[in-house]
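From the pipeline queue, job 12 of 40. The input is one protein chain; the requested action is below.

Action: predict structure.
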Amino acid sequence: MHRNGIFAKLVVGALIVATPILAQQAPAKAPAKAAAKAHAKAAAATPANKPALGTFGFDTAGMDRTVTPGNDFGTFASGTYLRNLTIPNDRAGFGMFTMLRDLSQERTRKIIEASAAQKGAKPGSEAQKVGDFYGSFMDEAAIEALGTAPLKPHLEAIAKISDRTQLVRAFGAASRLGINTPVGAGPMQDLKNPEIFSVYVGQGGLGLPDRDYYVDLANPKFAEIRDKYVVHMTSMLRLAGITEPEAKAKAIFALETKIATLHWDKVAQRQIDKLYNPVARQDLDAAYPGVDWTALFTAIGVQDQKQLIMAHPSAIKGIAQLIATESLDTWKDYLAFHTIEDAAPFLPKAFVDERFAFYGKVLSGQPENQPRWKRGVDMTTASLGEAVGKLYVAEYFPPASKAAADALVKNIIAAMDQRLANLTWMDPKTKAEARLKLAAFTPKIGYPSKWRDYSKLEIRRGDAMGNAIRVAEFSFNRELEKIGKPIDRTEWGMTPMTVNAYANPLWNEIVFPAAILQPPFFDANADPAVNYGAIGAVIGHEISHHFDDQGRKFDKQGKLSDWWTEEDAKRFKVLCDQVVAQYAAYEPLPSTHVNGELTLGENIADLAGVTVALDAYHASLNGQPDKLIDGFTGDQRFFLGFAQVWREKLRDAALLQQVTTNPHTPGFLRPNVVRNLDAWYKAFDVKAGEKLYLEPAARIKVW
């Protein structure tokens, strides 16, 4: 089973949202067109002292110079590449992130398959666990032979539920496995005391990606998806031998729709201070009637907590009433369906295919499922990521790469400090605190200083679903064990093989896994201007998350507190509203606009990231003029390097899902942020009347 994110990290800002295994969007074969093949191949293997891409680290052959930069900068920088790019059939999209995921996944496969091939791996060793987890998942014949036998005990236990106390106990047990439940609880750092873990209670329970899929009745695409979801539920119930599957599927969908109407939307969930609602355990039953909270918390393992923090109080109150009043039989069918759904990747092919038919084809527009080995690699790294990661780092992340990245991070932090020091709209007192917060940053580069201990995790060859269950229990218990203990700030929230980066305001840290520190983001042999535009802007992006509309609510200790003056907050709100309006005007699909409120934090981070990275690049010149390379100035190369990392194509269904649920603006629109930088206008001679042109007074300058 998998972690469903009922109360997944509430405060971490990432460069992109990591692709969930269950969305079936992980990397697959290289794009069919020659340009994309060459691009991926060049990034994977490059002669010594030569940049991986082009002559200076940028793929000039992928440009479309017939396009005026001021009309469409992304197409100018990448139009030929994108025109020649065909999304593979087993992908919902393709871009620079997926290109690097390809590379990371191929490398990880070699490591995992080497472990799986070991005949004499010591029982209980990490090699045995990695090899047996992967080998068990890949043994399709054994999985087919077992059929639904691994699932039956779970469905039989659900069928025996005879009252609502037993129901919520079952919800608690299911939530420990990451199975989708309407309400769940688990430990996370206390937002107002980041030195301890508290237990949060949050909303969940939807099978579609977001409440809008249920409640937005005006969008015909959502209506089509709703109908197909009911068909999918029917098929899954039938495959598992559940009687009257069609009638039960319709009842489950009606129940989920009621849950959806209670859910906080994505914009509301971004307001981090609104998610902190402590309630004493003794007051919980009166404040949130309808649930046997003692039964739920005992099943989860948090029954001793004297205080809980309600992340979405109005939703939880409403869901509690649904648990008390909706048909017990429908709730049992609901839990059975979600148990089947989450177990499907470890069940026979008929379940896998049906699950992909909906989540892959319908929700993401992806024609084919990815090969099983890729799903196996993803499952294994999700389960034993740091056991694999230490081998990955040893082979693919040399000390020189870490040292070069360390130096870049220091330069970007210094540039951000100068920006803060020279800020005209912020009060000197707030400005001083902001600079102290920046000075207290902890950058993490490449890989953890201390690897995770998997000694308590049991993995058995030939027990694919049992292994998944034990991984879920191990992971959940590991979180429970943190309650009441000192915070271990050496932990990482991503594996070294992850092509992404993140900021964690609770720890006042920025984190860059090894896999993102390679072309097109970072290339030790590339022109520095390109590196500053690419990985430099990524670094600046993550730094600035600590000062975006939500990150600013944390002080230098990582505590949720209001350290800004009231006037500063008002001035910042004016700037944020400008960012919201600018992005809300973008229309990635006909009649579908970017949600400027939902994407606000990421858009501020993009704007700040490219701004401070450009400052850092200029500072790196030490007063010397830049030089022309292949006819491009330093600033031009910087902006092209930035645009190159956002080369991306998405299928319409995947794009609709991103615009609806994702706090990031679609990648192909992210180069547009440069229209706010005066230096971009000068670099490319952008003139009034061109589509991206903004009058100087309309160019947004937050930091």
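Job complete. The domain at 164-327 is CATH 1.10.1380.10 (Neutral endopeptidase; domain 2).
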